[in-house]
Protein 1
Amino acid sequence: MKVFVAVKRVIDYNVKIRVKPDHSDVDLTSVKMAMNPFCEIAVEEAVRLKEKGVATEIVAVTIGPKAAQEQLRTALALGADRAIHVETDERVESLGAAKALAKLVEEEQPGLVILGKQAIDTDNNQTGQMLAALTGLPQGTFASAVDVDGEKVQVTREVDGGLQTVELTLPAIVTTDLRLNEPRYAKLPDIMKAKKKPLDVKTPADLGVSVGSRVKLVKVEPPAERQGGVKVGSVDELVDKLKNEAKVIS
Amino acid sequence: MSILVLAEHHDGALAGATAHVVAAAQQIGGDIDVLVAGENVAAIAEAAAKLDGVSKVRVADNAAYAHLLAEPTAALLAELAGDYSHVLAAASTTGKNVLPRVAALKDVAQISEIIAVESPDTFKRPIYAGNAIATVQSEDALKVITVRSTGFDAVAEGGSAAIEAVDFVADNAQSTFLKEELAQSDRPELGAAKVVISGGRGMGNGENFKLLDGIADKLGAAIGASRAAVDAGFVPNDMQVGQTGKIVAPELYIAVGISGAIQHLAGMKDSKVIVAINKDEEAPIFQVADYGLVADLFQALPELEQRL
Ligand SMILES: Cc1cc2nc3c(=O)[nH]c(=O)nc-3n(C[C@H](O)[C@H](O)[C@H](O)COP(=O)(O)OP(=O)(O)OC[C@H]3O[C@@H](n4cnc5c(N)ncnc54)[C@H](O)[C@@H]3O)c2cc1C
Ligand SMILES: Nc1ncnc2c1ncn2[C@@H]1O[C@H](COP(=O)(O)O)[C@@H](O)[C@H]1O
């Protein structure tokens, strides 16, 4: 079975972002970029499926600027067999990404597509669900376990009240939650080998899709800053303040 | 304008989140209908009809919508969406699962987790784990939106909207519900609790989370956790507060043995009063805490329980 993984280049999760002084967007100049953490989990899951003999080929896909090829190379180093870069400098939101992915799914007919549940820049949490709609495939979102069994896949989902398990017919779309697995690190020889693995570059026009967004970013502001408060010296003082100053307990 | 709100419900009862979503719909303005989809949902529909501001409750009561699986539920919403300018749902795991699918079926964008309505087409939403607030404007004719409950005060109950059945039945051969393991708890729901006390990696193990129980009992609090505590297996995933867990904004949030990573802060920094108990006085959690206690939690917690 062929497995697609969608990987997005985003700001490194450790970086605290700053808003541009003109409030037009977040300032990403010389900020450390990385593969979205949920996409790392998606790649890892695909690699494990290959190790189990379930997946036969792993194709990593990204839609974004030239620089996003770095993340494709990372996916290749981690175990993807080849990569597809849909190159664009437009601001690509979830619907645009899903449209490009849907076209590739149509062309290549993977049995499973694994995406992250959420990109940590836009915090959208949409692309997998949209891809499922556009391809007419079932979806298993926020997965903490994925078991492929013949023509079906069982997906355990992290839902608000606990865990839910659904069974989907293949082909299907899965999005990863944090506890699905713990991604491995790429080893140096694999990073070297990844440089020789095939990486196709296409444009949205080649696929016949437009990836631009109809949601305009009007402005971006810093959130209301919380003022750090006081340190209290004892539990007694804490309880006193909560009762008599903050009045949140009685 | 006319707005369709997907009702959130669990265990045969309307979930509190729906009243917050209706409040967001009121700010957009126009007629508000609520869709109750599920199996045996008559009582839920009646509860929804009492929410202030609701004109009509539409009920799709059919086994096809049991557990609100994404495939049939999105097909139903896409079928009904033609009558509306906006489709709204809570930014719960149900809303997040279903609404993007609806949006793509209608070839429109989806706007996630709004916290404010600026106008019928312009909304505010947090991005980058809440480290920036974006104002976004949708150019689509249909707006499909999930609503962060903490951004809107719930509407009251005093209405008596008409209830009408929806006949459309979506067929779904692709996905089947197998099972659910839901956490059982007598405590208030995390998202709705007035007080939340959360433990982090500093708790050391799952057994030690019991130290929070007595305090939670006395304060009527829900118990939450950091991701590190969940990952370490101390507590189940539904307790995780943060960017990728639950978003809470109680009157009082008590963080115990939690360092204060941005991903955790994203889930609780809109709380009214924040208390941090941590033995490391440099822990970043103290930068957002109204009251910080530098102490070993194993001493502070029993003492706190006793003083309350
Ligand atoms: C994509 C992504 C999403 C994430 N989403 C979330 C999320 O939704 N929610 C979330 O919480 N995290 C999330 N994280 C993880 C986050 O980055 C942090 O790793 C996590 O919040 C740390 O949890 P912690 O504060 O419990 O642990 P630590 O950072 O290890 O802190 C433990 C604290 O306990 C204190 N301590 C230890 N012993 C004691 C004692 N005896 N008495 C008092 N204090 C003590 C220590 O001083 C320390 O400050 C996410 C990370 C990623 C990459
Ligand atoms: N531009 C993109 N290129 C490749 N994958 C993407 C892109 N945008 C989103 N995705 C995938 O969709 C997931 C969820 O993103 P989102 O729904 O946009 O929050 C990510 O973790 C990726 O797997």
Protein 2
Amino acid sequence: MSKSLQIALLVVLGLGTYLAISSIYTVSEVEQMIITQFGKPVGEPVTTAGLKVKVPFIQEVNPIDKRVLEWDGSPSDMPTKDKLYISVDLFARWRITDPLQYFLRLRDERSAQSRLDDILGSETRNAVAKHELIEIIRTTKDRVPLRDALLTDAEKELDMGSLVPIQKGRQLVEQEIFAAAAEKVRVFGIELLDIRFKRINYNESVRPKIYDRMISERRQIAERFLSEGNGEAARIRGNRVRDLNKIQSEAYRQVEEIRGVADAKATEIYATAYNQSPEAVAFYEFTRTMQSYKSIIAENTTLVLSTDSDLFKFLKGMSPDGNGVPAQRSSGN
Amino acid sequence: MPSQNGNGPWSSGGKPPDIQDLLRQGQGWLNQMLPSGGASGFIVVAVLILAALGAWTAYYTVPSDSVAVVQRFGKYLKEVPPGLHFKLPLGADLATIVPVKRQLKQEFGFTTPGATDPYQGPRDGRRDTKRETEMVTGDLNAALVEWVVQYRISDPVKFLFEVREPSETLRYVSESVMREVVGDRTVDEVITIGRQEIETEALTKMQALSTKYAMGISIDQVQLKNINPPKPVQESFNEVNQAQQEKEKLINEARRDYNKVIPLAEGEKDQRIREADGYRLKRINEAEGDVARFSALLAEYTKAPEVTRRRIYIETLQDVMPGIRSKIIVDEQTHGILPLLNLDTQQGILK
């Protein structure tokens, strides 16, 4: 083999390899291909994955993503219907459904993202401006919040611990933005899958006012607690006085009742015994009088007694009837 | 060659070497080596180099916590279990390793240092970390919420081929859902009483969304970490706590006073009632005793009334008399004795 032949062989080999490489291409599961010939799309887009063949040199492949793509909005400040400035951050998911259209209108993803920025940005502004803040914060219309057992009284009074009522809720507002934007992006060969609010927050300038309101609400609750504490303490002190009086007066009543019953019973016992016959009555009177002498007549008593008395009648003579004095009692006269 | 960009952090190490580049390099190198060499020699060397390259790119190992997804010329071929495996060389087969058994997590509002997964923490440093936590509650208050999402890759094929940025999308979903759940709750629920409920509801909603989005991710847990009111407001939240304590203290003090007095009064009441009962027993027993004694006496008295009367009379006077200091016994017939008496008072005889 001559040297020139060798070189020719090498060149042919090299050209052959280059030809082969430029006429085959692979399509991954995650992409689809638009074939362009001198920059102009030819034929249907290739949507199945695998090893494919094209016309070498003059045809080029343009990969376009087949997966669900994300759009992450940058946070932007906007006013709500109730004139509150809030910072809103959205995310959306989209996919390229008409790759040819997409390729012709947008060519690459960067311009797609910027169209989405514009469209979703303005639709978000529209929707937020039409709704009060609470409509994009809350979701479930009829949710009843849990309440701390300790907080309940104080908060009911202040109308706190309750949720601000809503008409629509976050999901419906999202739905509105989605519906408006989905229509507008369709012309780019894009299908918007869904959008969701990622972050919603008070704008820096609004925050101090919100914080002030929160602080004043908390202070009210704190005051309420103190006042409840004092009130409850006063109630307990009142109970103390009431219960004390009740207990003591009940004791008095029961004591008097018992003593009354006792006295009555004793009286009854005495009366029945002393009143059983006329003799008993006389005997009681006599013995009781005798008994009373023992206590009535004391040491310093001066007693003047007649010799006619039963005790001293014998001082004058032995015979009780010798003096013609009848046996007669004159006691303590 | 078209290749997949951003298939998550676990793409196989390095792209397979580009064939064209290699060939060109090989040609240059060979031409230097064999400036006038024969074509057959050149071909032998080229084949040798190709064989070496082929062998080098024809095997791969899958770690035990992962599986590999193999694509042949871009088309999905199979899922491969852990171990040593072979594939078509020179970029024909692409094996992507996906850690399906590893428990992954994403942190919101804070970062554990040294995380290898770039999606684990907030992306843009401190500012983003703070912004992630700021939320508005359903009573239009503000709260700072930190949380963690624990998840696994349940379907590696979906994870790789359905959604471009599954991990990033999961972060968006998580933030969005957490705000939705917090937005339906009062600040008190968020900070104190509703934590459990928030975790449960957020988990349910995130699971529903990740199923809907077909991300190939299964969410296992949502855990709330620190939840605080915003800094300027924290002081006033503490005031409420203090007031709550103060309230308890006031009530307890009043209860203490009550308890100091009332049980004692109850005891004293019982004491008085028992004493009264004692009085009752005493009265009745005494009456019965008196009556028994009287009845016994009466029985004897009725047998001899006159004598008994006399006896009792005399006995009584006998008892009484000795104690009296001045006794005057006057005869009925004696008159004018009265002026002689030195009576202490004008009242009379008994004093």
Protein 3
Amino acid sequence: MNKKEKVTGKGQPGGGFKALRACFPLTVPVMAGYVFLGITYGLLMKTSGFPFWLPTLTAAVIYTGSMEFLMVEILASSFHPVSAMATAFMVGARHLFYGLAMLPKYSNTGWKKFYLIYTTSDETFAVNYGAEIPEGVDRSWFYFWVSLLDQLYWVTGATLGAFFGRFLKKQKEEQA
Amino acid sequence: MTNEQMVITFVLVTAATVMTRFLPYVLFPEGRKVPSVITYLGKVLGPAVFGLLVVYCLRNVSITSPSHGIPELIACLVTIGLYVWKRGMVLPMAGGTIVYMILLHTVF
């Protein structure tokens, strides 16, 4: 195995800032998509009457755009826990394929592995699956930064949308 | 739904989503050798899903409809052409989408 790919602790050459610089350009298209879609999501949640912190919470914890949009309707309707869970399984079934595909690439990533798996979204999977890690860059850090940045974009978008929604509501109330 | 019911729903949905993400890694832990079928699937499923998505995207395009599927065809060709010419992801995606939108709103 390539020595530069070995994953240990801090101060690992090819990790940290070098990996961040290497992977950032790849996440720019994701940033555009996630921030705008996230704003839409946050707005939708807020204007549907949910608290302003809920989009941020779902963005951090559920982190699946399709399911989060569905949650707006699910939470607004009557209590059907089994059907909600079944829907989440079906909507999330594609993650099974992502996991299979990333099995080899996410191996030997140490403590980061939990976060890498937890935040495997469509776009993160696409970027990490197709990425050619440059020489001297630590693979696990590369994947980690991509996953972290992508989630930050989504959480930021959702939070912004929630605040815009709150602002819109206040404006409406002032005009009324 | 009461607040408690919403919390339960939230937790269940989160649990299901988390399970879909972690299940492959639980079934095939790092120490043991992954069955070659699974490795094969891992390599092949990515492109297979892309093929599925293309078909899914174009499944409702009808040749007998007024536009005869021509804007879709042109947009697909533009996307393919841009990719063959310049590679990368952003240009083919943006170019194809813009061409399609323009065609829809002006010509067809």
